[in-house]
């Protein structure tokens, strides 16, 4: 069993148990109805915030595409907002905190920078990145710069600092 699979199993078992324990403790401290009210309020607030931020990310995506830029940040924003909204829909305090962090722009940027930094570091350690181009999907090319048979069209990009 792979390491990622083990981590996912732990995540799907331990996080709900921890969330349940936190909700039970909160219910003991403030009571059942206020606890349920907090769960509903975070869901409604999260849905509203996710909708607003999602529309903002969509507009930024469209603007980048219209201006001929690769919409990298809007795609990251959209993914972060989706994950944040999903976390807010699940009952729990820790998932709500993480969900709100992914919906609020300053903390979303902080989280994105950390994730991209970790992924970038992993790519640099592996030595190269292979980029698939649209010409490699079912089309046939011929000519001096066509790829060998069996290999999709694309180009290798050396990671930063490997020159």
Structural overview:
This protein has 163 residues and is mainly alpha-helical. The protein is built from 5 helices and 2 strands; from the N terminus they run αααααββ. The chain has a domain at 21-107. It is 70% helix and 5% strand. Strands 1-2 form a two-stranded antiparallel sheet. The chain starts with a helix and ends in a 6-residue tail after the last strand. Mean pLDDT is 79; it is low at 136-152.
Work out the oligomeric state of the chains in this entry: single chain
> What structural category arises from helix and sheet content?
mainly alpha
Q: Give the distance, in angstroms, between the N- and C-terminal Cα atoms.
A: 37 Å
Spell out the helices and strands N to C: HHHHHEE
Strand order of the largest sheet: 1-2
| Rg measurement, Å | 22 Å
How would you describe the shape? flat
Number of separate strands? 2
């Amino acid at each position: 069993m792979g390491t990622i699979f083990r981590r996912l199993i732990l995540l799907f078992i331990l996080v709900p148990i921890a969330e349940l324990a936190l909700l039970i403790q909160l219910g003991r401290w403030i009571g059942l109805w206020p606890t349920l009210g907090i769960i509903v309020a975070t869901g409604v607030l999260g849905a509203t915030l996710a909708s607003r931020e999602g529309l903002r990310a969509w507009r930024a995506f469209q603007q980048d595409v219209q201006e001929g830029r690769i919409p990298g940040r809007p795609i990251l924003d959209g993914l972060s907002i989706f994950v944040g909204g999903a976390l807010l829909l699940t009952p729990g305090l820790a998932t709500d905190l993480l969900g709100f962090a992914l919906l609020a722009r300053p903390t979303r940027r902080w989280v994105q920078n950390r994730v991209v930094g970790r992924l970038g570091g992993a790519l640099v350690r592996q030595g190269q990145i292979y980029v698939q181009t649209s010409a490699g999907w079912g089309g046939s090319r011929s000519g001096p710069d066509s790829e060998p048979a069996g290999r999709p069209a694309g180009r290798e990009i050396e990671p930063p600092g490997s020159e």
